[in-house]
Amino acid sequence: MPVSHSVDREPSEATNSTENEHQNQTDNDDRPDDGLPINELFYSLQGEGTLAGVPSVFVRTSGCNLRCWFCDSYHTSWEPTHAWMSLEEILAEIESYDADHVVLTGGEPLLHDASADLLSELDDRGYHTTVETNGTIHRDAPIDLASISPKLESSTPTPERDPRSEIPEESRNGERRSRGAANRGDGEWEQRHESARLDLDALTELVETHPFQLKFVVTDADDMPEILDLLAELRDAATVPIRDENVLLMPEGATRERLAETRTRTAELAMEHGFRYTPRLHVDLWNDAPET
């Protein structure tokens, strides 16, 4: 179900915290004490990773500490929208679907304290939970699969990599688009994203604490040296093995047209380096439609 089309306010430049930043965007809302800002909640097929094709309920929170220029959920980042739902309401909606798997996604779902509470409730009810995260935040919560997507330099918004090119035509009007929907002339998000996109300590804690997959969005072969360097650092830091089978390369693209440009090269790179290739099944099936 689509939840809201109300646009959050732009974050204050003075705040550098995670959840506080997103709360500053939405401090006029009538929020439940135990709630989460939900962008959409729906039933579909998992489109990415080792569980691709598994019927799942998706709980998409709003708000993100990063701003990938190619973000395929721009209404949680560049144009964050949401409705506040209590945990009771979220759980009731999840239980209305005939599914055993729940995917907590965003945005960055681990921004929010209540995400850990939701994961605990889902664990108590016997659901398999996947958390899709950028790997910059760790929380103490039961997670069956941490789907970690560390952000590479190629994700950073620049004047040449303008997020407006990824915003669908129907959203391109001055009334709906927030000021964050363009990389402003002062390069605010270029600097903030680049400084925050990797956190080796949080990444290490995530892989040591949960079953995991490392899912890298690949634009072209230029991304591979950074991926290999990061894997070497992570393998040195972590007390658990980081096997090649845990590493997935996923083509960059939120539309079928863009995937047609990136998927073949990404698949070739996966074979060349011995990593897994993951499709974007939801894009292949439904293009960039919402609730997929």
Automatic annotation (TrEMBL):
<keyword id="KW-0479">Metal-binding</keyword>
<feature type="binding site">
    <location>
        <position position="105"/>
    </location>
    <ligand>
        <name>substrate</name>
    </ligand>
</feature>
<keyword id="KW-0949">S-adenosyl-L-methionine</keyword>
<feature type="binding site">
    <location>
        <position position="68"/>
    </location>
    <ligand>
        <name>[4Fe-4S] cluster</name>
    </ligand>
</feature>
<feature type="binding site">
    <location>
        <begin position="45"/>
        <end position="47"/>
    </location>
    <ligand>
        <name>substrate</name>
    </ligand>
</feature>
<comment type="similarity">
    <text>Belongs to the radical SAM superfamily. 7-carboxy-7-deazaguanine synthase family.</text>
</comment>
<feature type="binding site">
    <location>
        <position position="64"/>
    </location>
    <ligand>
        <name>[4Fe-4S] cluster</name>
    </ligand>
</feature>
<feature type="compositionally biased region" description="Basic and acidic residues">
    <location>
        <begin position="1"/>
        <end position="12"/>
    </location>
</feature>
<keyword id="KW-0004">4Fe-4S</keyword>
<comment type="pathway">
    <text>Purine metabolism; 7-cyano-7-deazaguanine biosynthesis.</text>
</comment>
<dbReference type="InterPro" id="IPR013785">
    <property type="entry name" value="Aldolase_TIM"/>
</dbReference>
<dbReference type="InterPro" id="IPR058240">
    <property type="entry name" value="rSAM_sf"/>
</dbReference>
<dbReference type="InterPro" id="IPR007197">
    <property type="entry name" value="rSAM"/>
</dbReference>
<comment type="function">
    <text>Catalyzes the complex heterocyclic radical-mediated conversion of 6-carboxy-5,6,7,8-tetrahydropterin (CPH4) to 7-carboxy-7-deazaguanine (CDG), a step common to the biosynthetic pathways of all 7-deazapurine-containing compounds.</text>
</comment>
<feature type="binding site">
    <location>
        <position position="60"/>
    </location>
    <ligand>
        <name>substrate</name>
    </ligand>
</feature>
<feature type="compositionally biased region" description="Basic and acidic residues">
    <location>
        <begin position="159"/>
        <end position="178"/>
    </location>
</feature>
<feature type="region of interest" description="Disordered">
    <location>
        <begin position="131"/>
        <end position="192"/>
    </location>
</feature>
<protein>
    <recommendedName>
        <fullName>7-carboxy-7-deazaguanine synthase</fullName>
        <ecNumber>4.3.99.3</ecNumber>
    </recommendedName>
</protein>
<dbReference type="GO" id="GO:0051539">
    <property type="term" value="F:4 iron, 4 sulfur cluster binding"/>
</dbReference>
<dbReference type="GO" id="GO:1904047">
    <property type="term" value="F:S-adenosyl-L-methionine binding"/>
</dbReference>
<dbReference type="Pfam" id="PF04055">
    <property type="entry name" value="Radical_SAM"/>
</dbReference>
<keyword id="KW-0411">Iron-sulfur</keyword>
<keyword id="KW-0456">Lyase</keyword>
<feature type="binding site">
    <location>
        <position position="71"/>
    </location>
    <ligand>
        <name>[4Fe-4S] cluster</name>
    </ligand>
</feature>
<keyword id="KW-0460">Magnesium</keyword>
<feature type="binding site">
    <location>
        <position position="107"/>
    </location>
    <ligand>
        <name>S-adenosyl-L-methionine</name>
    </ligand>
</feature>
<keyword id="KW-0408">Iron</keyword>
<feature type="domain" description="Radical SAM core">
    <location>
        <begin position="51"/>
        <end position="288"/>
    </location>
</feature>
<comment type="subunit">
    <text>Homodimer.</text>
</comment>
<dbReference type="GO" id="GO:0000287">
    <property type="term" value="F:magnesium ion binding"/>
</dbReference>
<dbReference type="GO" id="GO:0016840">
    <property type="term" value="F:carbon-nitrogen lyase activity"/>
</dbReference>
<dbReference type="InterPro" id="IPR024924">
    <property type="entry name" value="7-CO-7-deazaguanine_synth-like"/>
</dbReference>
<feature type="region of interest" description="Disordered">
    <location>
        <begin position="1"/>
        <end position="38"/>
    </location>
</feature>
<feature type="binding site">
    <location>
        <position position="73"/>
    </location>
    <ligand>
        <name>Mg(2+)</name>
    </ligand>
</feature>
<feature type="binding site">
    <location>
        <begin position="70"/>
        <end position="72"/>
    </location>
    <ligand>
        <name>S-adenosyl-L-methionine</name>
    </ligand>
</feature>
<feature type="binding site">
    <location>
        <begin position="149"/>
        <end position="151"/>
    </location>
    <ligand>
        <name>S-adenosyl-L-methionine</name>
    </ligand>
</feature>
